[in-house]
Amino acid sequence: MITVNLIKREIDEYLKGYFEDKQGLNKELFDSMSYSLNIGGKRIRPILTILTYSLYKDDWKKVIPFAAAIEMIHTYSLIHDDLPCMDDDDLRRGKPTNHKVFGEAVAVLAGDALLNEAFNIIIKFSIKEGRAALLATEQLGEAAGANGMIGGQLVDILSENKSITKDELYYIHEHKTGALIKASVLAGAILGGADKEELVLLEKYGENLGLAFQIKDDILDVEGNKELIGKNINSDAENHKYTFVSLLGLEDSKALCKQITNNCIESLKSLKYNTVVMEELTNFLLERNY
Ligand code: GRG
User: In the chain, which residues have pLDDT < 50?
Assistant: First the structure.
Protein backbone atom coordinates (compact mmCIF):
# COMPACT_ATOMS: atom_id res chain seq x y z
CA MET A 1 0.00 0.00 0.00
CA ILE A 2 1.18 3.52 -0.81
CA THR A 3 2.13 5.66 2.19
CA VAL A 4 3.55 9.15 2.59
CA ASN A 5 6.68 7.70 4.26
CA LEU A 6 7.29 5.29 1.41
CA ILE A 7 7.01 8.06 -1.20
CA LYS A 8 9.29 10.31 0.84
CA ARG A 9 11.91 7.56 1.08
CA GLU A 10 11.83 6.98 -2.67
CA ILE A 11 12.13 10.70 -3.42
CA ASP A 12 15.02 11.05 -0.95
CA GLU A 13 16.82 8.10 -2.58
CA TYR A 14 16.31 9.46 -6.09
CA LEU A 15 17.64 12.89 -5.16
CA LYS A 16 20.62 11.48 -3.27
CA GLY A 17 21.53 9.13 -6.09
CA TYR A 18 21.16 11.84 -8.71
CA PHE A 19 24.39 13.59 -7.74
CA GLU A 20 26.46 10.65 -6.58
CA ASP A 21 28.61 10.13 -9.68
CA LYS A 22 29.01 13.79 -10.60
CA GLN A 23 32.69 14.64 -11.11
CA GLY A 24 34.65 17.17 -13.15
CA LEU A 25 35.65 20.80 -12.97
CA ASN A 26 32.08 21.83 -12.12
CA LYS A 27 31.86 19.36 -9.21
CA GLU A 28 31.48 22.15 -6.64
CA LEU A 29 28.26 23.16 -8.36
CA PHE A 30 26.84 19.67 -7.97
CA ASP A 31 28.04 19.51 -4.36
CA SER A 32 26.24 22.77 -3.64
CA MET A 33 23.03 21.62 -5.38
CA SER A 34 23.13 18.29 -3.60
CA TYR A 35 23.84 19.94 -0.24
CA SER A 36 20.61 21.94 -0.15
CA LEU A 37 18.53 19.17 -1.70
CA ASN A 38 19.70 16.49 0.67
CA ILE A 39 19.81 18.12 4.11
CA GLY A 40 16.16 17.48 4.85
CA GLY A 41 12.90 18.91 3.65
CA LYS A 42 9.42 17.50 4.01
CA ARG A 43 9.12 16.73 0.25
CA ILE A 44 5.51 17.93 0.32
CA ARG A 45 5.35 18.94 -3.33
CA PRO A 46 6.63 15.67 -4.88
CA ILE A 47 4.53 13.70 -2.38
CA LEU A 48 1.45 15.63 -3.56
CA THR A 49 2.27 14.89 -7.21
CA ILE A 50 2.66 11.19 -6.55
CA LEU A 51 -0.40 10.91 -4.30
CA THR A 52 -2.58 12.69 -6.86
CA TYR A 53 -1.19 10.53 -9.67
CA SER A 54 -1.84 7.39 -7.64
CA LEU A 55 -5.55 8.26 -7.37
CA TYR A 56 -5.59 7.18 -11.02
CA LYS A 57 -2.74 4.74 -11.57
CA ASP A 58 -0.80 2.16 -9.57
CA ASP A 59 2.58 2.56 -11.28
CA TRP A 60 3.51 5.66 -9.26
CA LYS A 61 7.24 4.92 -9.29
CA LYS A 62 7.22 5.90 -12.95
CA VAL A 63 6.57 9.56 -12.04
CA ILE A 64 9.32 9.83 -9.40
CA PRO A 65 11.68 11.79 -11.74
CA PHE A 66 8.95 14.33 -12.54
CA ALA A 67 8.03 14.69 -8.87
CA ALA A 68 11.67 14.93 -7.73
CA ALA A 69 12.26 17.65 -10.33
CA ILE A 70 9.56 19.73 -8.60
CA GLU A 71 11.56 19.41 -5.37
CA MET A 72 14.60 20.74 -7.26
CA ILE A 73 12.61 23.82 -8.31
CA HIS A 74 11.41 24.33 -4.73
CA THR A 75 14.95 23.94 -3.37
CA TYR A 76 16.35 26.45 -5.86
CA SER A 77 13.74 28.97 -4.65
CA LEU A 78 14.80 28.41 -1.04
CA ILE A 79 18.51 28.85 -1.85
CA HIS A 80 17.82 32.15 -3.62
CA ASP A 81 15.30 33.27 -0.97
CA ASP A 82 17.96 32.86 1.73
CA LEU A 83 20.56 35.02 -0.05
CA PRO A 84 21.68 38.30 1.54
CA CYS A 85 19.94 40.26 -1.24
CA MET A 86 16.63 38.58 -0.35
CA ASP A 87 15.75 37.30 3.15
CA ASP A 88 19.37 37.00 4.29
CA ASP A 89 18.94 33.83 6.34
CA ASP A 90 21.71 31.72 7.78
CA LEU A 91 19.68 28.62 8.67
CA ARG A 92 17.55 26.39 6.47
CA ARG A 93 16.37 22.83 6.97
CA GLY A 94 18.29 22.91 10.24
CA LYS A 95 21.65 23.53 8.56
CA PRO A 96 23.66 26.58 7.44
CA THR A 97 22.15 28.06 4.28
CA ASN A 98 23.79 27.33 0.94
CA HIS A 99 25.62 30.66 0.64
CA LYS A 100 27.00 30.28 4.19
CA VAL A 101 28.67 27.03 3.11
CA PHE A 102 29.56 27.64 -0.55
CA GLY A 103 29.59 31.44 -0.83
CA GLU A 104 27.12 33.70 -2.56
CA ALA A 105 28.28 33.20 -6.14
CA VAL A 106 28.14 29.41 -5.98
CA ALA A 107 24.75 29.57 -4.21
CA VAL A 108 23.28 31.71 -7.00
CA LEU A 109 24.64 29.28 -9.60
CA ALA A 110 23.42 26.22 -7.66
CA GLY A 111 19.91 27.69 -7.64
CA ASP A 112 20.09 28.45 -11.37
CA ALA A 113 21.42 24.96 -12.08
CA LEU A 114 18.72 23.24 -10.01
CA LEU A 115 16.01 25.04 -11.97
CA ASN A 116 17.59 24.00 -15.28
CA GLU A 117 18.27 20.45 -14.13
CA ALA A 118 14.63 20.12 -13.10
CA PHE A 119 13.45 21.02 -16.59
CA ASN A 120 16.09 18.73 -18.16
CA ILE A 121 14.62 15.83 -16.18
CA ILE A 122 11.06 16.82 -17.04
CA ILE A 123 11.77 17.26 -20.74
CA LYS A 124 13.42 13.81 -20.92
CA PHE A 125 10.37 12.39 -19.11
CA SER A 126 8.01 14.17 -21.51
CA ILE A 127 9.84 12.94 -24.61
CA LYS A 128 9.21 9.42 -23.33
CA GLU A 129 5.69 9.87 -21.96
CA GLY A 130 4.14 12.27 -24.48
CA ARG A 131 1.29 14.77 -24.36
CA ALA A 132 0.06 14.41 -20.76
CA ALA A 133 3.60 14.98 -19.52
CA LEU A 134 3.89 18.10 -21.68
CA LEU A 135 0.62 19.46 -20.29
CA ALA A 136 1.87 18.84 -16.75
CA THR A 137 5.13 20.58 -17.66
CA GLU A 138 3.18 23.59 -18.91
CA GLN A 139 1.50 23.92 -15.49
CA LEU A 140 4.84 23.71 -13.74
CA GLY A 141 6.57 26.23 -16.00
CA GLU A 142 3.76 28.75 -15.46
CA ALA A 143 3.75 28.17 -11.69
CA ALA A 144 7.50 28.62 -11.33
CA GLY A 145 7.76 31.69 -13.55
CA ALA A 146 7.04 35.42 -13.60
CA ASN A 147 3.27 34.95 -13.31
CA GLY A 148 3.75 32.44 -10.51
CA MET A 149 6.36 31.96 -7.79
CA ILE A 150 8.82 34.57 -9.00
CA GLY A 151 6.04 37.16 -9.41
CA GLY A 152 4.91 36.46 -5.83
CA GLN A 153 8.47 36.79 -4.58
CA LEU A 154 8.82 40.16 -6.33
CA VAL A 155 5.64 41.59 -4.78
CA ASP A 156 6.75 40.23 -1.42
CA ILE A 157 10.09 42.04 -1.69
CA LEU A 158 8.47 45.28 -2.86
CA SER A 159 6.11 45.10 0.13
CA GLU A 160 8.80 45.02 2.80
CA ASN A 161 8.48 47.85 5.33
CA LYS A 162 5.05 48.75 3.97
CA SER A 163 1.55 48.02 5.11
CA ILE A 164 -0.26 46.17 2.36
CA THR A 165 -3.87 45.38 1.58
CA LYS A 166 -5.49 42.01 2.11
CA ASP A 167 -5.62 41.55 -1.69
CA GLU A 168 -1.89 42.14 -1.94
CA LEU A 169 -1.22 39.66 0.86
CA TYR A 170 -3.30 37.03 -0.94
CA TYR A 171 -1.53 37.81 -4.22
CA ILE A 172 1.88 37.27 -2.62
CA HIS A 173 0.98 33.95 -1.07
CA GLU A 174 -1.11 32.56 -3.90
CA HIS A 175 1.88 33.13 -6.16
CA LYS A 176 4.98 32.77 -4.00
CA THR A 177 3.90 29.62 -2.15
CA GLY A 178 0.57 28.55 -3.62
CA ALA A 179 1.41 28.33 -7.31
CA LEU A 180 3.98 25.54 -6.99
CA ILE A 181 1.84 23.59 -4.53
CA LYS A 182 -1.18 23.82 -6.84
CA ALA A 183 0.95 22.83 -9.84
CA SER A 184 2.31 19.82 -7.93
CA VAL A 185 -1.26 18.58 -7.42
CA LEU A 186 -2.33 19.36 -10.99
CA ALA A 187 0.76 17.75 -12.51
CA GLY A 188 -0.02 14.47 -10.75
CA ALA A 189 -3.65 14.64 -11.85
CA ILE A 190 -2.78 15.42 -15.48
CA LEU A 191 -0.15 12.68 -15.62
CA GLY A 192 -2.69 10.28 -14.14
CA GLY A 193 -5.37 11.17 -16.70
CA ALA A 194 -7.90 13.16 -14.62
CA ASP A 195 -10.92 14.48 -16.53
CA LYS A 196 -11.89 18.18 -16.74
CA GLU A 197 -14.29 18.10 -13.81
CA GLU A 198 -11.75 16.38 -11.58
CA LEU A 199 -9.09 18.88 -12.59
CA VAL A 200 -11.36 21.74 -11.48
CA LEU A 201 -11.88 20.08 -8.09
CA LEU A 202 -8.19 19.31 -7.65
CA GLU A 203 -7.25 22.83 -8.70
CA LYS A 204 -9.48 24.21 -5.93
CA TYR A 205 -7.95 21.70 -3.52
CA GLY A 206 -4.41 22.76 -4.53
CA GLU A 207 -5.25 26.44 -4.24
CA ASN A 208 -6.70 26.06 -0.76
CA LEU A 209 -3.88 23.79 0.36
CA GLY A 210 -1.28 26.34 -0.74
CA LEU A 211 -3.08 29.04 1.21
CA ALA A 212 -3.47 26.93 4.37
CA PHE A 213 0.20 25.93 4.06
CA GLN A 214 1.29 29.56 4.00
CA ILE A 215 -0.94 30.60 6.90
CA LYS A 216 0.56 27.74 8.91
CA ASP A 217 4.04 28.91 7.87
CA ASP A 218 3.22 32.40 9.21
CA ILE A 219 1.93 30.88 12.45
CA LEU A 220 5.08 28.75 12.86
CA ASP A 221 7.23 31.81 12.26
CA VAL A 222 5.67 33.30 15.40
CA GLU A 223 5.22 30.34 17.71
CA GLY A 224 7.32 27.58 16.15
CA ASN A 225 10.41 25.98 17.63
CA LYS A 226 13.65 26.95 15.85
CA GLU A 227 15.14 23.46 16.29
CA LEU A 228 12.04 21.73 14.91
CA ILE A 229 11.36 24.02 11.95
CA GLY A 230 15.05 24.22 11.08
CA LYS A 231 15.10 27.95 10.43
CA ASN A 232 15.12 31.13 12.45
CA ILE A 233 11.78 32.21 13.85
CA ASN A 234 10.37 35.76 13.89
CA SER A 235 12.05 36.35 10.54
CA ASP A 236 8.88 37.94 9.14
CA ALA A 237 8.78 40.59 11.86
CA GLU A 238 12.53 41.17 11.54
CA ASN A 239 12.18 41.64 7.79
CA HIS A 240 9.16 43.92 8.39
CA LYS A 241 6.88 41.59 6.47
CA TYR A 242 3.14 41.74 6.55
CA THR A 243 1.72 38.26 7.20
CA PHE A 244 -1.60 36.56 7.93
CA VAL A 245 -0.71 36.73 11.62
CA SER A 246 0.01 40.46 11.52
CA LEU A 247 -3.15 41.03 9.48
CA LEU A 248 -5.59 38.81 11.37
CA GLY A 249 -3.90 38.01 14.68
CA LEU A 250 -2.76 34.57 15.82
CA GLU A 251 -6.09 33.06 16.85
CA ASP A 252 -8.00 34.16 13.75
CA SER A 253 -5.13 32.91 11.57
CA LYS A 254 -5.37 29.50 13.25
CA ALA A 255 -9.15 29.42 12.73
CA LEU A 256 -8.76 30.40 9.06
CA CYS A 257 -6.10 27.75 8.52
CA LYS A 258 -8.43 25.12 9.98
CA GLN A 259 -11.39 26.29 7.93
CA ILE A 260 -9.41 26.24 4.67
CA THR A 261 -8.04 22.78 5.52
CA ASN A 262 -11.62 21.56 5.99
CA ASN A 263 -12.48 22.94 2.55
CA CYS A 264 -9.55 20.93 1.18
CA ILE A 265 -10.87 17.75 2.77
CA GLU A 266 -14.33 18.43 1.32
CA SER A 267 -12.87 18.79 -2.19
CA LEU A 268 -11.08 15.46 -1.78
CA LYS A 269 -14.19 13.72 -0.48
CA SER A 270 -16.17 14.85 -3.50
CA LEU A 271 -13.85 12.85 -5.79
CA LYS A 272 -14.93 9.32 -6.55
CA TYR A 273 -11.55 7.85 -5.59
CA ASN A 274 -9.92 6.67 -2.38
CA THR A 275 -8.42 9.90 -1.01
CA VAL A 276 -7.65 8.68 2.53
CA VAL A 277 -3.87 9.15 2.27
CA MET A 278 -4.30 12.61 0.71
CA GLU A 279 -6.66 13.54 3.54
CA GLU A 280 -4.07 12.38 6.08
CA LEU A 281 -1.38 14.49 4.42
CA THR A 282 -3.72 17.49 4.32
CA ASN A 283 -4.45 17.20 8.05
CA PHE A 284 -0.76 16.69 8.80
CA LEU A 285 0.04 20.00 7.10
CA LEU A 286 -2.42 21.75 9.42
CA GLU A 287 -1.15 20.04 12.58
CA ARG A 288 2.59 20.12 11.75
CA ASN A 289 5.07 21.77 14.06
CA TYR A 290 7.88 21.92 11.46
C1 GRG B 1 13.74 33.32 -4.91
C2 GRG B 1 12.61 32.85 -7.12
C3 GRG B 1 12.55 32.87 -5.66
C4 GRG B 1 11.45 32.47 -5.07
C5 GRG B 1 11.33 32.31 -3.64
C6 GRG B 1 9.15 29.88 -2.24
C7 GRG B 1 9.85 31.15 -2.13
C8 GRG B 1 9.92 31.98 -3.33
C9 GRG B 1 10.47 31.54 -1.04
C10 GRG B 1 10.44 30.78 0.20
C11 GRG B 1 10.10 31.70 1.27
C12 GRG B 1 9.25 31.03 2.23
C13 GRG B 1 9.93 30.57 3.47
C14 GRG B 1 7.96 30.87 1.99
C15 GRG B 1 7.04 30.24 2.93
C16 GRG B 1 6.45 28.97 2.45
C17 GRG B 1 7.48 28.02 2.08
C18 GRG B 1 7.71 27.87 0.63
C19 GRG B 1 8.12 27.34 3.01
C20 GRG B 1 9.15 26.35 2.77
O21 GRG B 1 8.59 25.18 2.23
P22 GRG B 1 8.54 23.83 3.03
O23 GRG B 1 7.94 24.04 4.39
O24 GRG B 1 10.09 23.56 3.23
O25 GRG B 1 7.91 22.79 2.18
P26 GRG B 1 10.89 22.18 3.26
O27 GRG B 1 12.24 22.56 3.81
O28 GRG B 1 10.15 21.20 4.12
O29 GRG B 1 10.97 21.75 1.83
Answer: none
